[in-house]
Amino acid sequence: MKLAPASIPYRAFQKATSLGITLVFIASIGAGIRIGSPTFLLLIVGILLAALTYEIAYYKRFGYELTDDTFDIRSGVFSRREREIPYGRIQNVDISRNVLQRLVGLSAVNIETAGGGSTEAAIQYVTAFEGKRLQQDIRRYKRDESKTPADTDADADRSVDEEVLFEIAPSELALSGILSFDPRVPGLILAVATGSIPFVSPIVPVDAPVMILLALFAVLLVGGMVLAWIVGAISAVVNYWGFRLTRSDDELRYERGLLQRYSGTIPFDKIQAMTIKDNPLKRRAGYATLAVETAGYAPGQASSRGSEAAVPIASRRRVETLANEIAPFEQPTFKRPPKRIRRRYLARYLIALGAITAVLYGLAVWVDAAAGVPWYLPVIAVLATPIAAHYKWLHRGYSVGENHLVTRNGFWSRETKLVAYYRIQTVIDTRTIFQRRWSVATVIADTAGSLSLLGTDAAAIDIDQRDADRLREELTERLRVALVERRRQRTGGFEWFDEDDEQAAEEHTVDEQTANTQATETQPDDTQTDNEQTTNTQTDDEQSSEEHVVDEGHEPNDSDHTAPDRDGDSTN
Amino acid sequence: MNKLHPRIRIVWVLRAIIIGVVVGAIGVGLSTALEASPLVPVGMAAIIILLGVVHAVLRYRNWRYVVGEDAIYLERGVLTEIRTEVPLVRIQHVDSRRSAFERLVGLASTVVYTAGSRGADVMIPGLTPSDADGLRKRLKRLVIDSDGEDAV
Q1: Is the pTM of this model over 0.80?
Q2: Is residue A501 scored above 60 in pLDDT?
């Protein structure tokens, strides 16, 4: 199939304008080309013609096709490329349309697969109708592939109706605007400001008193903040205008955007993790943010808006219902790090404050211009450090649920991450030299999520080392069990149902249970010896806020049957 | 629990020496250009090499790994201790690799990739080439046995 014919002039126009702008820029710098001259106009026409020819060739060469089991794309004018993407590997299909494209009725379709930091296939551009059809067809083929023919007939009617999960209310849109603050803007302003100091300095009298300089600085800072806030508000409103999340049998579908309209699908079985975010402002007002991570490259990530299926803001209850709807989970009860860790946080905050004060003091003493700087001001914040340390501890925790690991972190902006056990890739347990002093550890459940690239994995930070050992074992164990369970479900539906496999799986689970009971029986002795060995015997150290322990029945197993493997089985 | 091959320490020490020498050379170059005493950069290089040696010894002492029935388990790290469990079902592919230094002392590394965001983190250095090959083949077999659909 071909692109929309209207894409030829559109793409040519797009190319020509960007080239033209470069030319005008060069001319304005003064490369000797006069903008009005006939040669210049000729050049512009030439560029336009060249772009048009290229685009016609591109249009002729570009073809895509939905075969029975792959999506094929042929493209390239000078170097040709043929690509086949199996439906099973497609993570999401996104459509985006900016204002101009909507005017001429074009859509850009992006197909994402796992792995690789870029879009697997970009189809620029097809008609809006064709875009929608592609999205739906790929979905249909995907489903056909994962089910037996008998199932698909039954599904054919159902695929049409979609259930609306979430629709942004105008008040929520306004709120998301008000509450969003783009920290990049003050940074940008600062960068520009420092660059323009040579220009500004003549305006400011050289011998101006320090207080005036400070006041100027404060005004700049406040102005920057306000500007950042306005920019953030506008971009949030523009981005999430008309946000809508719907679900069909096996997919989430979103639509959003005012100037550029995005729509896309996320198959449920590609969802890696969910994140619920809030901060004190949102908490107070009872609101939260939800983000859904897939293993594909999150579209629009380059413009750092993160995952597209994010619900910008909604009441906490709505967010929780929605998350539950996407992946049912029970209300987590968090197990917190040991209380002693609060002292560590306190020390950390105090050290940071001390450093800031020292730098300011140094400035005040050695730099003449800053002589009057009230370097002692940060010291006032010392009063707030115990509170901050307490909240940092209070918000930290993890919960080992039925199907999900839930972790929560962050003193100001609190993040709750939900990771299904069968999504865990590796389990990492790290202990820095400082953590070892407090005998705590961090356990990270690594997933293939795309947001994880920014270093926000589901992590149980600063938990007791013994808990960390148990958690690590338990996570790998639960992953294994969950995978066996899933495999059974998957093969269960098929005709070529493998009996041996099934039995093996069953035996395994039985093994499991016996191992578990054994483990729980031996547990008390283990703990005791451990306790005796611990040198760190402050009373409040030992109680790692056990009031929040969940799931007594699943008391983490120092499982008997993995331990022998470790000692016995070697590569030799 | 398996330990690495003792000779891996030579590789690590060599690496530290090279870093030390490079830093020292740059420092000496700078100090002669600025007509300052070359003692400081030489001292720095010595400290880097010394720390490198200590680090290599401790690193070797802390490194342990096991290839179990369902998972690879690694324990390593000097300042930050890291323990990683890599379920075999999650392995995407396995490399064996030999750097110039490793070839010098006749060792090899095995690198295990997963789809996780920290995928390439899992590297087992200090294996004899035959062990590395064996490990790679063994992992390959185990990975093929487990269902490929579960990788992501």
Answers
A1: no
A2: no
Of the candidates B84, B117, B149, the beta carbon closest to that of A448 is on B117
pLDDT at A15 over 60: yes
**C-alpha–C-alpha distance, residues A228 and A220, integer Å:** 12
Bond before B113 cis per omega within 30 degrees: no
Of A170, A167, A189, which is closest to residue A178 (Cα–Cα)? A170
pLDDT at residue A490 greater than cutoff 80: no
Q: Best mutation site among B111, B117, B150 for testing chain A: the one with the most A CBs within 10 Å?
A: B117
The b-or-e profile of A81-91 (16+ CB within 10 A means b, else e) is: eeeebebebbb
**CB of A489 less than 8 A from some CB of B:** no
B-proximal residues of A, 111-130, CB under 8 Å: 114-115
Tokens of A463: 């938990």
- Burial of A510 per CB tally in 10 Å (0-12, 13-18, 19+): exposed
| Beta carbons of A431 and B114 less than 8 Å apart | no
* Cα nearest neighbour of A468 on chain B: B83
Instruction: List C-alpha distances in Å: A477 to A74, A259, A352, B110.
Output: 45, 48, 40, 25
| B71 has a chain A CB within 8 A of its CB | yes
Query: What is the distance in angstroms between the Cα of A468 and the nearest Cα belonging to chain B?
Result: 10
ipTM of the complex: 0.86
Query: What's the order of all strands across the beta sheet hosting B64-67?
Result: A458-464, A440-446, A426-431, B81-87, B71-76, B64-67
Please give the pLDDT value at position A463. 92
Question: Does A1 have pLDDT greater than 80?
Answer: yes
Quick check: A267 contacting B, CB < 8 Å?
Answer: no
Q: In this predicted model, which residue has the larger pLDDT, A152 or B131?
A: B131
How would DSSP label each residue in A481-508? Answer: HHHHHHHHHHHHTSSS--HHHHHHHHHH
Number of Cβ within a 10 Å radius of residue A298: 26
pLDDT in tens, A218-254: 887 788 778 878 887 888 788 888 888 888 777 788 8
Calpha distance A203→B130 (Å, rounded): 73
